[in-house]
Recover the amino acids of this structure.
């Protein structure tokens, strides 16, 4: 058993750490205020190869293993979970194409990412969240014209307003249900495809989250990824792969909150001594540190299992769920240690707490993760 990152992984980690410390951390508060993405950050990220991390070498990408990708996302999470979410959405949206796409689809999709493009994964709808199988966006096949016509609305889509290419789930069966769920590639400039309202969110504000509207969007048959009805399985497999990455962002976020709370506790004097010398503060810091370490181990184990080709659905859910709960608990305790200063916007702690909340909600709520875990443990 080896718990250490190898030389290449350490190199990536260091490179991203420097990028985060120089380009993201200093402006994270401002990005949060602006509630907007910064295209120049994506430009730098593209040059550093951070937008196509899971693109295999045969399709022009670095083909990084999941452990390395987690190390990258953990560092991004330390700087700003919003920026990290936006960049990680490229991996989420790419996974279905790599899993079930044909060679031409993989080439086309990966080229977009290799050239600095952004992608979006569109499963969620106003009426289909945890119940992913109840998607009501319809895809009607015209066998003669060899096309599909898509109609429906997607909601809470990361990169929704700024992506170049979209992976959209729609139902090919009139009566709906998971057996009709099908994945499609929709380029942004397709007629009938519109970006709807932009969300004004509590946290991860520097990530773009939008509604998508599809009105008679006609795409060629070649844009269907996998078979008709294979979409639910593709979505589930994709979420298995992506959940440890959400965990990685959450670990980075929690680690940064812990580091800031420790630094504050050593500086802040009350009753004539640093508050770090008080046992009640020490107890909180010890619990925070244990949770962050445990979350990190779960995240890297799930990624390692994926890289070994092992079944890892349960472990992915554990990693995502525990890391998200850790981020929430640790950021809350960081504010408690910092008192009024933690509650003030002068320090990053309150932003981190707002950012942490979404980790328990997106890419499958933590209640859904517990369902997945319990199902695997019991049956
Ligand atoms: N990998 C591969 N196949 C899977 C799978 C997985 N992780 N999970 C389920 N499946 C398959 C099952 O094997 C089953 O196949 P068969 O019908 O051929 O036996 C099928 O999918 C249906 O499974 P199940 O009956 O468990 O589906 P449910 O509708 O009960 O839903 C949950 C299962 C709740 C786990 C699923 O809907 C889910 O993950 N929801 C959360 C969605 C989500 O994360 N949304 C976030 C938005 S996207 S960022």
């Amino acid at each position: 058993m080896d718990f250490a990152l190898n030389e290449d992984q350490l190199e990536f980690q260091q490179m991203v750490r420097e990028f985060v410390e120089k380009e993201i951390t200093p402006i994270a508060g401002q990005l949060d205020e602006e509630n907007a993405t910064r295209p120049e950050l994506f430009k730098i990220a593209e040059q550093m190869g951070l937008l196509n991390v899971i693109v295999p070498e045969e399709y022009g990408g670095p083909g990084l293993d999941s452990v390395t990708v987690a190390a990258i996302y953990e560092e991004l999470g330390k700087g700003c979970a919003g920026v990290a979410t936006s960049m990680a959405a490229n991996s989420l949206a790419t996974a279905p194409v790599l899993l079930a796409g044909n060679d031409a689809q993989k080439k086309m999709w990966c080229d977009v990412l290799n050239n600095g493009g952004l992608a979006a994964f569109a499963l969620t709808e106003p009426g289909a969240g945890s119940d992913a199988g109840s998607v009501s966006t319809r895809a009607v096949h015209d066998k003669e014209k060899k096309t599909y016509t898509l109609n429906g609305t997607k909601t809470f889509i990361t990169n929704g307003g700024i992506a170049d290419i979209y992976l959209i789930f729609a139902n090919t069966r009139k009566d709906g249900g998971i057996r009709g769920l099908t994945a499609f590639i929709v380029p942004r400039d397709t007629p009938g495809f519109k970006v709807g309202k932009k969300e004004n969110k509590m946290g991860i504000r520097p990530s773009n989250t939008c509604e998508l509207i599809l009105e008679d969007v006609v795409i060629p048959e070649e844009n269907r990824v996998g078979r008709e009805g294979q979409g639910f399985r593709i979505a589930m497999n994709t979420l298995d792969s992506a959940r440890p990455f959400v965990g990685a962002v959450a670990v980075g976020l929690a680690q940064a909150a812990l580091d800031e709370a420790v630094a504050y506790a050593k500086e802040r004097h009350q009753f004539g001594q640093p508050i770090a010398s008080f046992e009640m503060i020490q107890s909180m810091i010890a619990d925070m540190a244990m949770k962050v370490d445990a979350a990190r181990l779960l995240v890297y184990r799930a990624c390692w299992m994926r890289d070994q080709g092992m079944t890892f659905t349960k472990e992915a859910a554990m990693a995502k769920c525990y890391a998200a709960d850790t981020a929430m608990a640790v950021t809350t305790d960081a504010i408690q240690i910092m008192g009024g200063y933690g509650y003030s916007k002068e320090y990053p702690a309150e932003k981190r707490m707002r950012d942490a909340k979404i980790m328990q909600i997106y890419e499958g709520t933590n209640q859904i993760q517990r369902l997945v875990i319990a199902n695997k443990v019991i049956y």
Q: What stands out?
A: Residues 123-124, 130, 132-133, 178, 232-233, 236-237, 239-240, 313, 362-364, 368, 371-372 surround coenzyme a persulfide (CB under 6 Å). The first helix runs from residue 7 to 24. The chain has a mean pLDDT of 97. DSSP finds eleven helices and ten strands in the chain.
